[in-house]
């Protein structure tokens, strides 16, 4: 089978004004084209849709990620195409890829095989410049902060308590811990600092949670950048930074419209880190899509314990969005990995390992159905070496969970291969009412919120933290931030904080090692385990395979 990029380069794309008019009823006057095949939908048009009824929202999530791959984005694309094939008016909403993973090791975020969004090369590279705008806004704030200190420090900022980092959209471990302002008095006051990757910036989280330019500006102004000696917070608005930051982000906030290989519409907009932030595409894109079609398929980062929980407790809580059904993605290979099989042995039948690994899927299904109160379907990405015995075992083990298990072949067949999943989801939405609920109450104390997530969703027995972290959490509670949602940053590979602990571990302890206030995004980040906000490149990065040959991009997946 040809590579993803070879498939994408052979796609017969429809010009975006034609697609927008034909599939969504958007006139060309409301588009801001970026070439022939991608465009932004104007914010004025987005605002004009506010009184239209909403379609149905389908959330795609997954089991705990493994090196075997699950295909969550591919499923989102395939399901969107399948819904259109069975006569439903549907579109998808995805996050934008970060250049760090693209040139590192994870890959892009445009789907794969015959379930992709295009133009794939553009989407995975510079796209419409949104990430550049977010990085510039972040770094403008950093520059204004250092400039204020250099020119007299009227606000009395304690240079030991600066909380704002610069960002770059590339994996670069050398920038994690650096010293800035060397070279004498003209260059400012030397201090230890560091860079994060753009997707970890609070500006990115704010961008994706904002409902309008006015909301965006207000949230940017609420960013806490530093503290005084007596620990009084200094906000971006104190530096008069939020106005210029909003100007930089003005065009970026409009949703990006592209298409699937089957010429169905897709919004790809925003991309917050699925660990350090909430890991979902923008609220504006999701809400706009719901006004334009009958079914919207979106996804949340990583497994249902991280991505779906944050989708529910952060994005839905802040936006008023409510999913009508959930699709949980898995593969037989990945479930065998959770059962203890080495990656090199995953193509061999192993019923005992599969049975053991199904525990991971069962817990995710239980969380979605009982703790989020949502009906769900299990979509199994089919591989040719999946045996009939393995598939039957999987269906038998899941039969009592009221979550239909369906095979999907969209990677090889496009939307046609996901029609069974599409029909099952539509039937579920039409026949099964939701009992949507948050995992914790908004007025619960911060400590109780994280303990509820840990015990209910992760299967942990307790949450711990040293005295310093506990005091930070208490101070945030006392300072009036207790009503904020919590955003747990931990490894995506396990329900625990140990990435090697596969399956569905229980009784483990979640230790919080760091607390971060995101006052603009309006959530509290609790860092657990070894989570980095500036990844490094692997020994052989994906960038080594990417090239331009006779005017064509090669090696990009």
Number of strands: 25
Helix content: 25-40%
Question: Helical segment tally?
Answer: 19
Radius of gyration: 23 Å
What does this structure look like?
The strands form 6 sheets. Strands 1, 2, 3, 4, 5, 6, 14, 15, 16, 17, 18 and 19 form a 12-stranded mixed beta sheet that branches. Strands 20-22-23-21 form a 4-stranded mixed beta sheet. A 3-stranded antiparallel beta sheet has the order 7-12-13, covered by helices on one side. A hairpin with a 2-residue loop joins strand 5 (about 110) and strand 6. The chain has 19 helices and 25 strands. With about 550 residues, the chain is of the alpha/beta class. It is globular. Helix content is about 35%, strand content about 20%.
What's this model, at a glance?
By secondary structure, this protein is of the alpha/beta class.
Topology:
Elements: H1 4-9, H2 16-24, E1 31-33, E2 39-41, H3 43-48, E3 56-62, H4 72-85, E4 90-94, H5 99-103, E5 111-112, E6 115-118, H6 120-124, H7 130-150, E7 157-162, E8 166-168, E9 178-180, E10 191-193, E11 195-197, H8 202-209, H9 213-221, E12 224-228, E13 233-235, H10 242-249, E14 256-260, E15 265-268, H11 283-292, E16 295-299, H12 304-319, E17 325-330, H13 332-338, H14 351-371, E18 376-381, H15 388-398, E19 405-408, H16 410-413, H17 419-431, H18 446-457, E20 462-465, H19 467-481, E21 486-489, E22 509-518, E23 523-528, E24 547-549, E25 552-554
Helix pairs in contact: 4-17, 7-8, 7-10, 9-10, 13-14, 14-15
